[in-house]
């Protein structure tokens, strides 16, 4: 059975095409800076937003039209696998991501949940073997169920902690079964509401304790994917322990996890933290911890995680520049953690939205590659800091030959004659726009 019988495999047709089911910019085999687009971009589709999101919001009921619902939860789950791989094949996407609860019903007990996961991942493995499509990453949803009201790794209840550990163990077993390249931790409720009854250090110690169990178990089963922590501020917890890239790196370094954990960064999470996406990528890159990204965008007029498909070429260009400067993103990838808008409720919108996101990242890659080839940013930065290597005092400071006394003498000798140089930043931004056409 085909769930999208009216749509053939999406092909690259160029920017002049008027075919909505065609790529205008994403040409998988086009070579950019020595690698094909598909090698640079490593696109993945998110199971949750694509297969389980129903279009409901706090003010409206479900609206999405979906044809994969069966007579039971397990029948629906199996239909979703078939429909999902049809989407992946028609888009030409080679990777996918999922939470455990996305793919299989939780049932009435932990035993039933684990059995359901085994049955559905057997079916997923068959589809992977048939198509050659790979698992970019999987993760355990340890935030939706009421048991995780006070966190999972940070919970105040050791029985909840044990349940979380069981979910993570199963997630790692599934990762080995499906040869997952990464494994993600998003601490959706790893935070606190008020300090009045919270022991922050105790909770973070326990999160780190769980992560170290993960490392040991990965070694025991002989499967160690790249482990990733995904930062996010504010929601659902008021004070998230993984607020942003810098906060999460402080956690990683405090607990000696740098050799085992990197970051999975999301654009909408960056804006919620008060940062640009490229800022978060730069922080991770400078720590050697840029592991993978979730591709989406937020609405700056709305104050929550709207998870829109990325269509802003400037933002994506700056993000892709960071990825190119990182030397690429493998074994991570670019996962479309994005959902169609409530007004885009037809089945075909799932394909159209991903086409839009993939075309936007293709344009961002091309523009970022040209910026890199032209040395656009290198020239700006070199010019801005030129006096450090272009003056005797600058070189002397950088070679650690100065101290407070010698620099004080220099300041007195040279008075207040410092002449600053304008950044001409408006002109710079105008030039940057030229690369986006």
Write the layout of secondary structure elements.
Elements: E1 11-12, E2 22-23, E3 31-32, E4 35-36, H1 37-41, E5 43-46, H2 47-52, H3 73-91, E6 95-99, H4 100-103, H5 110-131, E7 134-139, H6 158-177, E8 182-185, E9 191-192, H7 200-221, E10 226-229, E11 239-240, H8 245-254, E12 261-266, H9 267-272, H10 277-286, E13 290-294, H11 313-325, E14 334-336, H12 349-374, H13 376-384, H14 386-390, H15 392-398, H16 404-414, H17 425-434
Parallel strand pairs: 1-2, 5-6, 5-14, 6-7, 7-8, 8-10, 10-12, 12-13, 13-14
Antiparallel strand pairs: 3-4, 9-11
Helix pairs in contact: 3-5, 6-7, 10-11, 11-12
Q: Could you characterize what this model shows?
A:
47% of the residues lie in helices and 11% in strands. It has 437 residues and is an alpha/beta fold. Helix 3 packs parallel to helix 5, helix 6 packs parallel to helix 7 and helix 11 packs across helix 12. The protein starts with 10 loop residues before the first strand and ends with a helix. It contains 17 helices and 14 strands. It folds into 2 domains: 364 residues, TIM Barrel (Alpha-Beta Barrel), CATH 3.20.20.150; 49 residues, no CATH class. It is globular and about 85 Å long. The chain has an 8-stranded parallel β-barrel, surrounded by 4 helices. The protein has a two-stranded parallel sheet with strand order 1-2. Strands 3-4 form a two-stranded antiparallel sheet.
